[in-house]
Amino acid sequence: MLKSKLLVQRHRLISGTVLLITACSNQHEVAVQPINTNTGNAVLPGTQASETPDKIISSFQQYQNALKAVKDGDDVLPAQFLARQPDSAMSNSIRNNWLQQLGKRGNWAVFRQQYALLDKNARDMETRCYAVQGGIESDSSLIASLSQETGNLPTGCNRLLVQAAASQQINAQNGWRRVRYLLALNQITNARNLAQALGSPLPDLLNASAGNSQGAQEALLYQVTSKENRSKDSAANRLQQISASLTKEQIGFGWGQLGLAQAYSLNSVNALTYFDRADPAQMNNEMWEWYARSALRLQRWQKLNNIIRSMPEALQQQVTWQYWLARSYRALGQNNQAREIFEQTAKRGHNFYSLLAKEALGSKASVQNTVAKSSQQIQSKIATDGNIDRSLTLFKTAQAENNWTMRRQAQQEWRYATRNFNDDTLIAAATLAENNGFYEMSIYSADRADNQLNYELRYPAPFKELTVPFAQQVGIDPAWVYGLIRQESRFMIGARSSVGATGLMQVMPATARDIAKRLGMDSNELYTMSGNIRMGTWYMSSVRKQFADEVLATAGYNAGPGRARRWQANTPLEGAIYAETIPFDETRTYVKNVMANTTYYANLFGEPRTTLTERMGTVPAR
């Protein structure tokens, strides 16, 4: 009892301290007023006072401590940090993380205070979920959208869904559909919690048998749709055997899961057979996309056309599926419909499919700038913004100290600083970032300037004195090398991935050791710019020689040559179809981006092969 009273007193003391700190911080908020730089059309939507470099680095260190304190359940340190900090990516991050911890603990008094201080546009989804759960906000649309989600959700949103299901605030059919997807994802605890809230608990999943309750039926279905069972040759027969004990929706979900498993294995005929038996209402975007990819892989154009036109509207309108819809119309001889969609798709940016659509109309990539890089005067004005200055200070310090945690925070601060910039100001910011060697944020800013195009900023080509000679030595196209580097590292010197891939060309240490032996290099040269580019270009050349094809070599560079080979068809396959049907999401996106980048670089470098269609070509048979 004494311990309980002391805990209550401590909670009240901390809450009082936090509320006092919050009140003080409200009195010292920095006024942010729109200003015009009077330098062209570049306008800062707001300016933050600059801080000294020492203050910025100290703030970053305090930020790291405050993040740890939030995870440890300490409310005082994050409150103190926020009381001293201006608005920034760091303060938004701390406030969101703290709010989620407060919500998890049910400390709604402090939650309410801090939630009011967080800009609406900066509130994470999980933060919003806790706000609804705690009665701070009422958001039936959020609950409805969460109930239709089929993937993983953060803890706070899963809790909100359980609360909403228990009070019958969600559609029961949507709720049970989500239970099915959670079971298929092996999210057993979340599935059990939601099923319980929906009023029908899940029995023992390993020993489930036919039953009348919803929970019993879902458990029986799980015997087919679990990750370890849905790829088995016996899965279809088993689903048919238990169908008499299942609802139409459950059976339709089961066929969709079996179709998805076959599609990922590139067994396209089986995938189409199973998807045809699926219930469209049970299918999520992933299923629809692989339904379409299975038809595309077999080049069944009428089938593909029917599938795309049956997709949910938002998915159907994505640039990928608009391009393939146009292709299906063209293959079916309906050229007017095809041309209309190609024309619309060609106007949707500079992505892989917009570029292919433009070429389908007889045009090609343009690298004609519509705006010059910004003058030094405009760059200097942009640099006076405290948030920009904070980002650049963190970037330069991170680069000097090889501190990748700080480098990632510098990127977050840049995104925060430029979030409301107009196109002219984005070009100015991109120019400033490029001149400071902050290439990833220069590309980021230039890419966001939709109506002001500067291709040297979008597709920079630094380090040519190393990259071009090494590419030429091993007989590969420098444009392809630059297209790959832009995708791999955004020209971040010393970049390191979570799995250890290193440098501009993201070479794995084990691969580097093998290359070093072959070339007579020291494997530690991987960590130098020159050595990294030499190793990366040699490996690109090696993979290309294995396949005699850039598309396959690009897939092999990312996922390994063995996988790239397994993804080939038994007959020659159009390169764009090969790319779209790669089963790895990361590699599929990677190949398309690298090849589109390469096309732009080829045009910038004045090379002869300047169309993406030509570069994609035909992938040879396995």
Characterise the protein shown here.
The protein is an all-alpha fold and 622 residues long. It has 4 domains: 55-138; 149-305, no CATH class; 376-452, Methyltransferase, Methionine Synthase (B12-binding Domains), Chain A, domain 1; 464-619, Orthogonal Bundle (Lysozyme), CATH 1.10.530.10. Helix content is 65%, strand content 2%. The chain has helices spanning 2-27, 53-71, 76-84, 89-105, 108-117, 125-133, 140-147, 155-166, 172-184, 188-198, 214-225, 235-242, 248-264, 268-276, 285-297, 301-310, 313-316, 319-331, 335-346, 352-360, 376-383, 386-401, 404-417, 423-435, 439-448, 455-458, 464-473, 478-488, 509-519, 529-547, 550-559, 561-566, 575-580, 585-604, 612-616, and strands at 35-39, 42-44, 573-574, 618-619. The strands form 2 sheets. A two-stranded antiparallel ribbon has the order 1-2. The chain has a two-stranded antiparallel ribbon with strand order 3-4. α27 packs parallel to α30 (529-547). The radius of gyration is 27 Å and the shape is globular. The N and C termini lie far apart (73 Å). Residues 1-17 and 19-39 have low confidence and may be disordered. Residues 471-571 form the Transglycosylase SLT domain. Residues 404-444 form the Lytic transglycosylase superhelical linker domain.
Helix content estimate: 55-70%
User: What structural class do you assign from the helix and strand content?
Assistant: mainly alpha
**Are there runs of 5+ residues with pLDDT below 50, and where?**
1-17, 19-39
Instruction: Find the count of extended strands (DSSP E, 2+ residues).
Output: 4
